[in-house]
User: Fold this.
Amino acid sequence: MSLLEIENLTAFYGDFQALFGISLAIDKGETVAAIGANGAGKSTFLRAITGLVNFRADKFLYDGETLSGRQACDIVGLGIAMVPEGRRLFPSLSVEENLIIGGYNQRSGNWNLARVYQMFPKLEQRKDISGTALSGGEQQMVAIGRALMSNPDILLCDELSLGLAPIIIKDIYDALPSIQAEGVSLLVVEQDINQALAIADRVYCFQEGRISLSGKPEELSKDQIAAAYFGK
Amino acid sequence: MTDSYNVLRSTRASRIGSIIGLVLFIVLVSFPTWGDRATMRLLVEMFYILALSQMWNLMAGYGGLVSVGQQAFVGLGGYMLFLLTIHLGVGAVWTVPLAGLIGAVVSLPVAFLVFRLRGHYFAIGTWVVAEVFLLGFAQIKTLGGGSGLSLPVSVVKSIASSRAGRDSAIYWTALFVVVAVIAIVYFLLRSRHGLALTAIRDSEEASNSLGVDNFRAKLLVYIFAAFGTTAIGALIFLTKLRISPSAAFDINWTTTVIFIVVIGGIGTIEGPILGTIIFFLLREPLADFGSWYLILLGTTAVVVMLKAPQGIWGIITHKFDLRFFPVQRRLELKKDD
Amino acid sequence: MIEWANTIIQGILTGGLYAMFAAGLAIIFGVMRLVNITHGDLIVLAAFIAMVVIETTGVNPFVSLLAVIPIMFVFGYFLQRGILNFTLGDDLLPPLLVTFGLSIVIQNLLLEIFSADSQRLKAGSFEVMSIQLTEGLSIGVFPLVIFIVALVMIIGLQQLFNRTRLGRAFRATSDDATTAQLMGINHKHIFGLAMGLALILVAIAGVLMAVRTNFDPTVGPSRLLFAFEAVIMGGLGSLWGTLIGGIILGVAQNIGAKIDPGWQILFGHIAFLIVLVFRPNGLFPRTRDD
Assistant:
């Protein structure tokens, strides 16, 4: 049985329809990448899963339970955490407080401050300064650590590489295997196709609010992906 | 494709409205020659409350400036009436425009202060200024200090020798003021400045990026509202003949006006008119219930703000597409011949 | 000379009461970005609730807080969740006009129920006790107690905001309510708790005010203005700033009153306007931009 199973999801921003019938499934411990151009609906899709955007779906099951109609603040307690686009650290909170508040829901699990600092040693040295005083890469580490502090079963990552230098992106992506090793499922949204293909077990390509292609990275040709990414 | 639409600046309702308006205007102008005194006094009160409402609505509904301290200018106008007539011998009716000018001048340093307060705090800042006016005027002994003063008989007689003559003179002044206020607001909103204001109201950030100078537009609105409100203040105390600091700078001037505008429909010219009519219709039967009337108005305003922020007029335009004062430009597709 | 020292000490102690008014307003603005025009009327409401509690049970005003605090907390929580949460957003008008409307409603309800008569809560001989410092210079025990309560209140609030789970949730929600939801924080509930907390401060301030001075249903707006002036003078978002702002206001008012009783309130307003001209962001502005 899939951990997350979604069938025919549609979402609107006011009168504007952003998603048209998305179907997607993620297994326990699996890493899935959602790629696509800007405005293809990837972020909206993540926001729908986390309850920040209203949606309709024929089926929206998480661990066998339906998630439709749940409030955003209840989702994380069920084991779905998100690293939001643009990091979105809390400026009034120090680095450490940003991490602590990630565990606000007090869900039990293996993640704690010590483990996060072990994964990102840089953060421990800077734990008392404001989160927004960090470099972009360090902020991204805090955002990932903050999401892990909720001890999620599935981690949604929205544009981890956005606005970061390639060397920093490598640092960030190097941390993902140790998260995968904990049995956490990953749903990674990326514009950077190569990065996504490198870590994903399966890939979905979004185009104008629909899924234009899906499959295992090794089974998809470059031309197929280009067509699905840019349209014809 | 290029010529397939018309820019409309009038509506059928506005054309019918102007005919009704003309008839109404003739009725109102001639009223003192055939109407009774009590109704005339009630109309005068409606005129100045409506004029105040239009001024407040211009600031809040179009300029996004929520002031709860406009009583500062009402009271200032009242005191200018007494100062100018008693000490400078100005004719009573002429104090109305003169007070307006003084109000506009005074509003400059006031704006210098309150414009430092952003957003919500602007509102309370204006209230502090009104309190300063109240406490300050209470200290001026030549204007009666804390207990106030009455307009001397000689000044009252100078308006007109008979009581009926005075009532008519004040009535026509009030009618002129309210018509002028509505006309000026109407033409101001149809002008380029009006477009700038509407842009600010709809989105402050977007209008900034389009090069609309928010600060200047807001300042102009503030000064103009001060001009109008102070002139109306002089008019109000011309009808009362007596002034005291607590009556002049009463927060109720602003409270009433806010309730009228919110319930009638903020950001439209019709809304305050409707709100004023509702206010006076309800006030007559409810006058005996004292504070219950204010409780009812306050509750209604809260409910309107939460459930129908465009007010009663907003509900009407939404349902029937009625606009008597079309300040916006509308596009209509041309039918192919 | 000694008279002026007396005036200034009285002013500082009065500032403690104003800081209490201001702290509630500052929390409401700090967490919800809401300027609560009803604030002064809620202070008066708390005083009248205390009066009813005292009249029905015969307890001392300070004991009445055991009832007034929970009542005001619950009232605040439901006021926020039932009404004020629906006014929050990018538009400035709804929160201002709704709290303004509520202010008029509360004021007039109090007038209908309790009449316009001036009231005072009696705390016995404690009210008039004083400590002699030197010849001609003494301070009232009760004003001193009020000041100490204000200090304790501010220290307590700082600890709450800086060190507790709830405090972190307040700050996070204030920064970014959407992202806070991703942390499992129910922002509507947090806003309700923040208003409840603010009204706990209002309850304490209201009862202490009612023992110290006369009150009636119409004095709310002037308490709002004092609170507002203390907040702005102190610099938005700084709790210690509200104490400094309250003290400046208290001292200015006492100096004014000493010159001429009619100038008491006017001097306070003028001090505020002077600070506004020279330090528009207050004396202790928050450094970060939000």
